[in-house]
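Researcher: I'm preparing a figure for a lab meeting and need a structural model of a single chain. I don't have an experimental structure, so a prediction will have to do for now. The sequence is pasted below. Please return the structure as tokens so I can convert it later.
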Amino acid sequence: MKDNADPPPAGLALSETLAQYASGFDAARIPAQVRERARLLMLDSIGIALASHGYDFSRRALAAIGELDNGGDSVVIGTGLRMDVRNAALANGVLIHGLDYDDTHARGVIHATASALPTVLSLAARDDRSGADMVAAYVLGMEVATRLGAVAKGGFHQVGFHPTGLIGTFGCTLAAGWLLGLDARQMVDAQGIALSTAAGSLEFLNDGAWNKRMHPGWAACAGITAATFGKHGYTGTRLAYEGRFGLYASHLGDADYDLALATADLGKLWEVQRVSVKPLPACHFTHAAIDAAARLHAQGVRPEQVRRITVLVPAEVVKTVCEPEAAKRKPANSYEAQFSIPYLVGTALCKGRLTLDDLEDTALRDPVVLALAALTDYRHDPDSGFPRHYSGEVIIELQDGRTLREREAVNRGAEDRPLTADDIRAKYRDNAQRQVSPARAEAIEQCVLGLEQGSARALAAQLGQGQPEG
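Model: Understood. Here is the structure written out token by token.
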């Protein structure tokens, strides 16, 4: 265990500090611009959830969850299904995260909305809370999860853990705890219980399996469970984070981490403002390289001219998007493709774009794209700004001996290169209208953006109208 993980002899454990913050969280003190950003992030994720209904993974997930469900009143986004509170949260997490198009907090390397939103939607609607309360609980969950993710400095990915599932659980626990009215002592217990339920393996990277898609929904289930146990006085361990077998020691071992990042400027600087909305439907680590390759296409580079492609990527992301090399050069399915630098760069260089359509089965068999992927190697980016930015550079050696290169030092959508509110709304509409009518998409948009003047139940009712159209 690192020295910086040892708690001071006197003073509060991290779970106690976070419990005090969460139990005393005052919605009125959230700045207006933070609340506005929160609503836009929610809108983005709801659009993705709607789009997910067009894919086999969602149908199979909903069939499995439905078989386990004994009924309830909680909505599943984009359907007329009603489930119990935890199963609905699980289903909505799958829908939001399943296309890997949802937002990312760069420092935490976490998709926090995909677990926080399902948690607060289920609980706030069940308990008839105001829309303002739902937004506040969402912000609280986001602030906790992103900061706890940042503590690891990107280290979870290096040892095979997925922070979206692992760390998301703790954010969901405190968001749920706030909605359930837990006091500080109960919040400590809840976090200790969450330690035994948080999970998320990256083994799916080796075969494109669907495990990752359910991680944030499972985090929501676990968070709701842990908070409810805490509410009823079930004792949880106090040193959930810094203990001998606490979160960081058990999952990072001797890797460097900094517990101080969990509470630095807590309540003063808002991490929700630092969450990046994805402009592209692929792992965020690949975006800079995709955009660089698309620019080379725009400059007139065509597949038949290419002799070799080298992509510079941050060393910390190699295990995720560059290895195993053979699988990355010929992805077996769309999910594997979304984590493949060779395939994604090849697609952008060939077509000048990357959309959801470029992840369909027919696109994955495109011989021109696969030929480019076979020519693609990677190197560590010596000028990487990871984890603040997911940089990338594409170097093309042409058959005529020329070398062309394009660099994206700050990925599009990053906190200091953000998508605008109009960009986010346009992305939402594109995704939503893949499954629902323009009129229905507009009604949902207005309900989400006006959430603080409405109620959680009104939003849930709007999201749970019938089956997807189309």
